[in-house]
Amino acid sequence: MIDFEALAEPGSDDEKLLQRIDVEALPRHVAVIMDGNGRWAHSRRLPRVAGHKAGIEAVRDTVETCARLRIDVLTLYAFSRENWKRPRAEVSTLMALLKEYVHKELDRLVDNNIRFRVIGRLDDLPRAVQGGLQRAIEATKDNDGLSFNIALSYGSRTEIVDACRSLIRAGVAADDVDVDTFSRHLYTAGQPDPDLLIRTSGELRVSNFLLWQIAYAEIWVTETLWPDFRRTHLFRALIDFQQRERRYGGLTSKERPDPAEVVRG
Ligand code: FPP
Fold first, then answer.
1. Residue 80 alpha carbon, nearest atom of ligand 1
2. The whole model's pTM is what?
3. CB 218 within 8 A of CB 246
């Protein structure tokens, strides 16, 4: 059961948006490219890291909202493999924020029945950060509410290469490789593909994120910078998502021929 009052105050604008969402037709998996932290900070004459710190509140609100809406999977792109090229001080601050986030947030994740996972090359991260992440993964592994994936040292092409290596190591014969088998060797094995991909700060790129998995995702881009992103924006994305007709390469319901007219061979 969805607790609507926990999602929006009665009479608020959020409540009006929430009323427009069909909770029976929510995406199973929402993926988010969190972008614009640097620009958010720059517009306030603050150092870039202030944008990352402010972005944590947006992470908290998005995770909690998805959990309350009973969405199955949320994947947040927090740190790409390319992000290692950023100035050392910025990388260290991001790592410290991550460590602090999992430490502070663990009780809340457990209380909200959230299963925490990491996708990406966890081994690339500093040991102290890995330890905190492993503790959170372990402590939440039996939770069966929202699966919250955080993409860290993540690159989609690397993920695809890792899946190939995993298939070969498992001794899968070439002729036995098909789309389903391949998916089972990705970091997201066992999870549904994203139905909705959100990108903040207006850029129209997918930035090496879940390239295999977003094959049929609906993309929603907002000019809002990540630190300003709140459930209001998520509600708008969900309303927009529910107005799209997903075709998966087929025809729309209007274009589909009357079954009586279909000539069977
Ligand atoms: C992109 O903004 C954002 C990132 C590279 C990091 C995302 C990190 C957070 C939201 C905070 C940490 C998260 C957790 C879960 C602890 P950008 O710096 O590329 O922004 P710009 O394009 O405006 O420069």
1. 5
2. 0.94
3. yes
d(CA 36, CA 228): 9
Q: Is the CB of 55 under 6 A from ligand 1?
A: yes
Classify domain 26-264 by CATH number: 3.40.1180.10
> Has 83 been annotated as catalytic?
yes
Q: 34: Cβ below 6 Å to ligand 1?
A: yes
CB atoms inside a 10 Å sphere around CB 123: 8
pLDDT at res. 204: 97
CA nearest ligand 1 atom 1, residue: 35
Q: Read off the tokens for 72.
A: 């199955």
Catalytic site residue from 61, 72, 83, 124? 83
CA-to-CA dists, residue 97 to 91, 103, 185, angstroms: 10, 10, 30
Name the residue ranges covered by the structural domains of the chain: 26-264
The response to whether residue 36 sits with its C-beta less than 6 Å from ligand 1 reads: yes
Question: What would the pLDDT profile of 103-137 be if each residue is shown by its tens digit?
Answer: 999 999 999 999 999 999 999 999 999 999 999 99
Helix (H) or strand (E) holding 29: strand 29-33
Q: Could you tell me how far CA 145 lies from the centroid of its own chain? A: 15
pLDDT tens digit string along 132-143? 999 999 999 999
Q: Cα–chain-centroid distance for residue 170?
A: 28
Number of the ligand 1 atom closest to the C-alpha atom of 94: 12
Whether residue 74 has its Cβ less than 6 Å from ligand 1: no
d(CA 222, CA 171): 44
The H or E element containing residue 66 is helix 48-68
